[in-house]
Amino acid sequence: QVVALDAQNIVAVSCGEAHTLALNDKGQLKQIYLRQDINKVLFMVPCFFAQFCVFDHDEFILLDLVVNEKTGQIIQYDKFYIHEVQELIDIRNDYINWVQQQAYGMDVNHGLTEVADIPVTICTYPFVFDAQAKTTLLQTDAVLQMQMAIDQAHRQNVSSLFLPVIESVNPCLILVVRRENIVGDAMEVLRKTKNIDYKKPLKVIFVGEDAVDAGGVRKEFFLLIMRELLDPKYGMFRYYEDSRLIWFSDKTFEDSDLFHLIGVICGLAIYNFTIVDLHFPLALYKKLLKKKPSLDDLKELMPDVGRSMQQLLDYPEDNVEETFCLNFTITVENFGATEVKELVLNGADTAVNKQNRQEFVDAYVDYIFNKSVASLFDAFHAGFHKVCGGKVLQLFQPNELQAMVIGNTNYDWKQLEKYFTNYHWKRKNSSDRIPILGMKSLILVIQSTGGGEEYLPVSHTCFNLLDLPKYTDKETLRSKLIQAIDHNEGFSLI
């Protein structure tokens, strides 16, 4: 068995009822422990859904190889979550150890050092982390990078006191914007920003408003600017009515530099722990993680086209060419006219038949998600990773990254009722979605304030705090809350 695994470049197997053995690339079997000083505190995969766990040289490939014997289906990655892992270990400290091991070349799985030489970090086995745990790791990484950027700024400022040639710098990235020109103002600042400054904590100032940004102003900034940038009326993104999703438009007149800055803004939102409303398909997050989009992604973005492609693949007869009358081309709209694009060399002369129909579908998917928008996405990708790149993203699955970016709508109302009655949700949180960490991460506070019934409730979005005057009846309370919700943009000091 070891020889067979080695032939497939498999370098590690955890096995046994407790799944506690590892096979390194030298063919040596060793036990895996979370920490060497704790006896038999083990990395475990519950044995009721997997017979073995497999790694290759580049990434964990369990999802491709482990099959449920009863159903014949590949086991989904979320079945390998160990939700209690955050209770068992300090995952923040584990992540720091993992980063240090990566930096110094101490890679247990790849045989650069003996397993017994260093403690095994759980980050080496990211499949056991659920999306919430991975979000905690990304936030840990962001805090570390922010602190390093702040420390560097402080050192430079101290040096500037003694060396006049060294300019003092702000330890934060400051964006001063006007609401009526939020895109132009933000882009002007970001174009001049150095890469190191993207790692600083972001502070936003709206011209003419008194609010101090402790988080709430930043939330509203991202809400407003993403609404503007992603609006299909600007032609940078195409809106698909059937799916209500958007994708990069290959007909845009905008320079790729603008897509680079949009990627920077998306990265800044994640880096600064802010949910953004991105109506992109899962394919975006696959590509950000260097994974290939598939027919399933086409079905999500273009349901009718996706179903047609599936019908082509499922057609049982041999007369595919005569029935479907297709060749390796795609017809696209070009400012009111139609244009035929070849999917492969000499595609117009290559008919789709039963033997090459999978190749046709793959080429079609590749054109939609890759070839037609390559320069635009590459610019977006570069901007995103300039802010939010790093080893921590390697831990995420596309669905997990998507959930972290846009939040979710899995409202646990019973949990929320412990703290808050949801009349004022969107204004208090600057979003109608909740963070991936769930409602338990939102500590919502209502406090009574002075004033008469003519006063409105006041929402402090930075702190999830609601000031509620003492109204005499529920109808007045309802009326004032609705009035406050209708005026849900802008900041002032109270």
Automatic annotation (TrEMBL):
The active site is at residue 462. It holds the Pfam family HECT. Coiled coil: none annotated. One of its GO terms (molecular function) is ubiquitin protein ligase activity. Residues 194-494 form the HECT domain. GO terms for biological process: protein ubiquitination; ubiquitin-dependent protein catabolic process. It comes from the Eukaryota. Keywords: Repeat, Transferase, Ubl conjugation pathway. InterPro entries: HECT_dom, Hect_E3_ubiquitin_ligase, Ub-ligase/GTPase-reg. GO terms for cellular component: cytoplasm. This is HECT domain-containing protein. It comes from Balaenoptera physalus (Fin whale). The lineage of its organism: Eukaryota, Metazoa, Chordata, Craniata, Vertebrata.
